[in-house]
Amino acid sequence: MKRVKMNCKLAREIDLIGLLKTMGYNLKRQNVKEAWFLSPFRNETIPSFKVSKKLNRWYDHGEGIGGNTIDLIIKLQNCSVKEALNFLDENSFSFQQPKYLEKDFKSDFQIFKKQNLQNKALINYLKSRGISFGIARTYCFELYYRNKGKNWFAIAFINNSGGLELRNKYFKGCIGAKDYTLQKNNTSTVNVFEGFIDFLSYLEISSNKTNSDYLICNSTALIERVLPLLKQYSNIDLYLDNDSSGSKASSTILESYSHANLKNEMYAAYKDLNEMLVENVCRR
């Protein structure tokens, strides 16, 4: 099949969040409607660069300017529209804007509402798992959907393909593409977790939350897929589960990266990091 040359229409459809992350810019926080980055135009410590997920447009509050994907490349590369299109074409930035919750991920699912975390039942569930509201709302939101004729709601955590990991007291699953989630802080260290509850548990007990990148596999079945991502890190810390699948995943990583560090000794008496958190925080 003949490759389609990049044009303005295709360029505007490129997911800005994915583009910025691929180019190495630092996603600091996000919610249902928007994502915030440290500005790619200057050095700063407080994120002022916003991307609207619905509109797929950016706005830099520090400079008072904004636009679409093409405008961003023109600003970053100090180039013309034609040169911006060539840049996007040559670097194979062909991923399209995810249709965030605008249609069903599966025929059985009908998604009808999304919002920032506020449902008391979900907040109480997270509390029972040792996860504070402040940390949870930074990385998660709540989703309301219909499945097989019944209405449900759950905590949602986005993966790198736009799929959603869902959790509530009674349900654990995924809708959309199953994939890992990589949270970058531009460090040489990466902490690896099986699921996002363990990731949030780590943030609860960590004194410095930005001294490493975070790779959440979202399933041990994705270990082979995440292996190439680990090449960029000089320090690899594994916080995987103390069960057969977790041990197998750790062994697979160690076969490729012998310098990786097993960190499960800190919760050796528990199934996983979250179970340790629950035992030592929630049941005191």
Quick recap:
By secondary structure, the protein is of the alpha+beta class. The protein contains 10 helices and 15 strands.
The shape is globular
Q: What portion of residues is helical?
A: 25-40%
What is the β-strand count? 15
Give the rounded overall mean pLDDT: 86
Q: List unreliable stretches of 5+ residues.
A: 94-107
For the report, how would you describe the main beta sheet? 5 strands, antiparallel
The helix tally amounts to 10
CATH topology of the largest domain: Dna Topoisomerase Vi A Subunit, Chain: A, domain 2
Strand content: 15-25%
**Quaternary form:** single chain
Describe this structure in words.
By secondary structure, this protein is of the alpha+beta class. The protein has three domains: 8-91, DNA Primase, Chain A; 106-179, no CATH class; 180-277, Dna Topoisomerase Vi A Subunit, Chain: A, domain 2 (3-Layer(aba) Sandwich), CATH 3.40.1360. Helix content is 30%, strand content 24%. It contains ten helices and 15 strands. The protein has helices at residues 8-13, 16-22, 69-77, 81-90, 120-128, 133-139, 196-205, 223-226, 244-256, 273-282, and strands spanning 27-30, 34-37, 49-52, 57-60, 65-67, 109-115, 141-147, 150-158, 164-167, 172-175, 181-183, 189-193, 213-216, 235-239, 261-262. The strands form three sheets. A five-stranded antiparallel beta sheet has the order 1-2-3-4-5, with helices on one face. A five-stranded antiparallel beta sheet has the order 6-7-8-9-10. The longest helix is centred in the C-terminal third of the chain and has 13 residues, at 244-256. Mean pLDDT is 86; it is low at 94-107.
